[in-house]
Amino acid sequence: TEARAELVDFSRPVWFAGDGFIVRNADAERWTSYESIADDPRATLAVVVAQIQEQTALRAGVPPERIISFPDQQTAVEAVRAGQADACASTAPGNRAYLHRAADPSLSFVPDTPSTSRAGLPVGAFSFAKTTPQLTDAVNSSLDRYLGTKQHLEMMSRYGFTRRDLAPVL
Prior knowledge:
Elements: H1 2-5, E1 8-10, E2 15-16, E3 19-24, H2 34-39, E4 45-48, H3 53-59, E5 67-70, H4 73-81, E6 87-91, H5 92-102, E7 107-111, E8 123-124, E9 127-129, H6 133-146, H7 150-157, H8 163-166
Parallel strand pairs: 4-5, 4-6
Antiparallel strand pairs: 1-9, 2-8, 3-6, 3-7
């Protein structure tokens, strides 16, 4: 955040966690973005309480009365499975990992693919004391050589990140 950047220096971004949706298979081509959900006056979106996806949905035009909050991902996905919600929003890697563990053939993962770019997408970076610019520079130099390599992509795939997820930081 901007407030955190006043206190520390950040390395170049090392990961990006775009959003995605868990939907019923029949809806996999229908709910492809927050905007597609916002455009359908009957569509409902399941989110996990206190996660950023609710704010993203609101900024994309999903009315608050069509956003249903759940205490955890399991109950949010259950709402989709039961037809109480049309899509469950979370990070793309998180939703892919959930579906892999659940092995439910009735559900699909759909990446959020907005027709226009959105500001403020979540990226991760290392933080450093403002008094250590040489360390920040040295880490950035190493990251420049490492990010995007076969080793990097293989390591990140173990945590559910695809090359598409990482593209904004490569």
